[in-house]
Amino acid sequence: MTEAILLVGGKGTRLRPMTVNTPKPMVPAAGVPFLTHQLARARAAGVEHIVLATSYLAEVFEPYFGDGSSLGLHIEYVTEREPLGTGGAIRNVASRLRSGPDEPVLIFNGDILTGLDIRALVDTHETSGADVSLHLTRVEDPRAFGLVPTDATGRVTAFLEKPQTPEEIVTDQINAGAYVFRRSVIDTIPAGRPVSVERETFPGLLAAGAHLQGMVDSTYWLDLGTPQAFVRGSADLVMGRAPSPAVPGRRGDRLVLDGASVAEDAKLTGGTVIGAGATVGEGARVDGSAVLDGAVVEAGAVVTDSLIGQGARVGARTVLHGAVIGDGAHVGADNELRDGVRVWCGARLPDGAVRFSSDQ
Hints:
Elements (H helix, E strand, L loop, with lengths): L2 E5 L20 E2 L2 E2 H11 L4 E6 L6 H5 L8 E6 L5 H8 L11 E6 L2 E3 L3 H11 L3 E7 L7 E2 L12 E2 L11 E10 H4 L10 H11 L4 E5 L4 E3 L3 H13 L14 E3 L4 E2 L4 E3 L2 E3 L4 E2 L4 E3 L2 E2 L4 E2 L4 E3 L2 E2 L4 E2 L4 E3 L2 E2 L4 E2 L4 E3 L3 E2 L4 E2 L11
Helix pairs in contact: 3-6
């Protein structure tokens, strides 16, 4: 197994305002762009060649990762001019693949944090003789996901999109966003138009009699599509709950990057990350949060389960709980923002303007 496709073209709408200036895979998680963790785990599993399928803010990726040599990889970049969906994006990069028709190609969604045993998925694919193999995971409430029931041998029997009634929920297995394709199958995806692998490619292959194999791996799995999930994923990486060889420091309650300034009596807990050049003032408490590069948390502020953008400022004694502060935003002193409140990039909130706010 030597090559993979990473789908990193999404706009990250649910993660705004953090994705206004930065594509979702490049938002820092545990001190480095989230994509770094995926690339490092792929390399650790033996992948050598990766094609990034880019679209939104595509110009950001190559200046950061270059040819991939610093990670022991060879990375190529293919940009969609118009959004093509998951299947269309896979087909759009097919010309860059080097595998023979029957060889396996790994495919990852660019917003999934997972402890998947990548080698085991490839082994399952090869020993079963499948055309496509899917990583499946089990969730308590599958209504927001696509269900993937399998038979006793693990062979996929159906694809059921977002069931709602008890009768429709026939399994707790969902599509976890990592696949192995037989190389020749990729060439059967229609070119030059939007295609969804979940709604078109996989059901079509199943209807045509193709062999789709599921492998249930219920280790750590998290869709990082929302700010709350992204912050939790970053904290889990710092604390070692989610595996990655790319975390730039020791696992523990906190990760403070080079150039950050943290007051001696400030308290950092719960997998908090303080980015390069960021400042945390006297008596501040930051729990389970990510404070990105150059941001400032002033004295006495309390920040919990929140995401503070690059160059943003949180005023003295301000309380944030489950909030998102965009890049360059300024929240004045003595404010209280809770329960999913988002402050847009560059916005300014005066001192004491909000004592409590909620999106409920």
